[in-house]
Amino acid sequence: MKSILLMFFFGLVAGRTELNAQSIFSIQYRFTNIQDTTLYNVFLVRNDDGTGFYRVRFFDPETNDYMVVQLDMEETVYRDKNGNYDETKIFFKGSNPWVLYGDTTYHYYPERFWFRLDAKTGWYEPWAVTSPDEKGTAQGKFVGRPELLEQEDLTEDYVSQFFLEEEEFYQNLFKVKPRSLTAAEKQTRLHLILVANTEDESIGATCQLDRRRTMKTYKDLAEFLGIAFNPKEIYGSNYSKAAVQYAVQTLQPAAQDIVVFYYSGHGFSNPNPNFSFPDMALSNKGFEDARANSWNMEEVYNAIRQKGARFNLVYSDCCNNSVDDKPNLTCDVPKMRNSALGWSLENCKSLFMNKNRTSILMTAAKRGEMSAGNGASGGFFTHNFRSNLMSYFGPLHLYPNWKTILETTQSTTTEQSENARCSERNEALKTYKQHPVFRIQ
Are residues 263 and 405 in the same domain? Predict the structure, then answer.
């Protein structure tokens, strides 16, 4: 069954539900306890799922020129000397430094950028910077106040300090000229069938969150593309197997249309081991038989694919294990202010209006696993998929593909489930792992 996680500090962030995909910070700092007066300029990108990277630009006196170094970063909640989590502090640990411009033999020591929870706003804000090496830890001090960048801040002069002209981000912002939809493309319709078990006592609140955010995502996408939107929602008292089957049976997409089917609710493994994807638990009454009122996601996918639309996306956020497994979990997820970046028309078209006919089936957990969520993010899988989708809609990428998005969703969902500090029933803290699976045809 789908598992529910509750925020430790839910009250701080519950009201901020409609988020963009990235937070981009401009940070300047100098070290204070070592003989290094260099001014380091940082372009830091943090995605909603906790992943990200940063670039550092600084002057190298050895070459008498500027250098730009890119590093991956990992988000970690601070633990004190006793191993206890301090939920008010997180840090981003840099790794894998890569010299983009300058002396490629330069040995760069990764930083740790610290963020601290502002109890008044509920957001995590830049707080400190350190850089551990074999001699100890260098302490940095911000020069000026770190700034959250918005779309209008990303001028060509500023971006060119960190990105080469041939890179995707630079090209998307300043070189690519969006091509308007043709008359034929404007006839495309986006059909959405959205199914959510919003009245369930244990997971209803997270399903409601998933439902509302998913609806907004595709409504906004249709409006942005300038195409018709045809939604069908099944939730609340209308939630039933018959209603879902009727919605699929009566779906009539044209050959150039887009079809999205999304499910958020309880699920379980099909007794037939040949089915890797789960059954949706579509019973809405306590006395109804779960198996008799279920429908397998692969059967849904096959039925929709036979309708002949140009693009089909069928995905579910539910457990894929025993019918009777009902864990009760708690967990927290850090949140921070997001940069208001616009979408790229070319990226959205590349994914949803590509000339190549494509069908995708994806679910939150492989056979034998649970699907987790919490009161702020909703389902982990839904949250990470949406976050990655929004990221690839934006200007940091150019002409994205589905394989990359789905593989990224796999890794970020698994990482979030592994690192979540969760408690099952009244037992000791333990870790859950879920591995989303997908198929592209």
Answer: yes
How many whole angstroms separate alpha carbon 109 and alpha carbon 132? 7
- Would strands 22-31 and 40-47 be described as parallel, antiparallel, or unpaired? antiparallel
pLDDT for 16: 29
Same domain, yes or no, for 134 and 242?
no
How far separated are the first and last CA of the chain, in Å rounded?
A: 28
Instruction: Tell me: pLDDT of 418 over 80.
Output: no
CA proximity to 113, closest of 146, 64, 135, 87: 146
- Do 103 and 225 share a domain, yes or no? no
Number of domains in the chain: 2
Q: What is the pLDDT of residue 331?
A: 52
Same domain, 194 and 156: no
**What is the rounded CA–CA span in Å between residue 436 and residue 57?**
37
Tell me the residue range of the domain where 94 lies.
Answer: 22-174
The domain that contains 421 carries what CATH number? Answer: 3.40.50.1460
Determine the Cα–Cα distance for residues 362 and 441; give it in Å rounded to an integer. Answer: 12
**pLDDT, mean over the chain:** 88
Taking the whole predicted model, whether its pTM rises above 0.70 is answered as yes
pLDDT over threshold 90, residue 4: no
Domain edge (last residue) among 174, 199, 221: 174
- Tell me the C-alpha distance between 54 and 233, whole Å: 40
Domain edge (last residue) among 174, 195, 227: 174
Please tell me whether residues 8 and 50 are part of one structural domain.
no
Compare 432 and 65 and report the one with higher pLDDT.
65
pLDDT at 431: 53
